[in-house]
Automatic annotation (TrEMBL):
Domain of life of the organism encoding this protein: Eukaryota
InterPro entries in the cross-refs: Elafin-like_sf, WAP_dom, WAP_four-disulfide_core
Transmembrane parts of this sequence: none
GO cellular component: extracellular space
Listed name of the protein: WAP four-disulfide core domain 2
GO molecular function: serine-type endopeptidase inhibitor activity
Gene Ontology BP term (one): antibacterial humoral response
SUPFAM superfamilies: Elafin-like (SSF57256)
PANTHER family linked to this entry: PERLWAPIN ISOFORM X1, WHEY ACDIC PROTEIN WAP
Gene3D superfamilies: Elafin-like
């Protein structure tokens, strides 16, 4: 498959109908389900950062954006807790990679995103939770 995700934007016109895989589509277009048919469409536009977790929160049950290109500045198009999407300030993702989870570790959620960790540390998965770790 080609990189990226299918856009939720139904206003983007398909470039081709009847695809089976991304390889059937021109350029960077992807094979996506659209109006009960497989069609080639441009991929969703993604800005850097991670959307906040909105599980259990309330939001507008409407699509106020379709992908990040609909949002100003550094805002991203994120799930809002009600099944809709709206523009939100993302969490920054620090560069580097987490070490693989190993050994006994406290089963706790000490962090949920990199910006909760000091300095260059990242929020990494442990054996049963998440904690701030030095980079590998």
């Amino acid at each position: 498959p080609k990189p990226g995700e299918c856009s939720r934007n139904y206003l983007l016109a398909p470039s081709k109908s009847g695809c089976v895989s991304d390889q059937d589509c021109p350029g960077d277009h992807k094979c996506c389900v659209f109006d009960c048919e497989d069609v080639c469409k441009p991929p969703a536009f993604n800005k850097p950062g991670v959307c906040p977790d909105t599980t259990g929160q309330l939001g507008y049950c409407a699509f106020l954006c379709f992908d990040d290109r609909d949002c100003s500045d550094e805002l991203k198009c994120c799930r809002n807790g009600c099944g809709g999407y709206n523009c939100m300030l993302p969490f920054k993702v620090k560069p580097g990679h987490c070490p693989p989870p190993q050994g006994p570790a406290p089963c706790a959620e000490e962090c949920s995103h990199d910006s909760q960790c000091p300095g260059d540390q990242k929020c990494c998965q442990t054996v049963c939770g998440h904690a701030c770790h030095e980079l590998v």
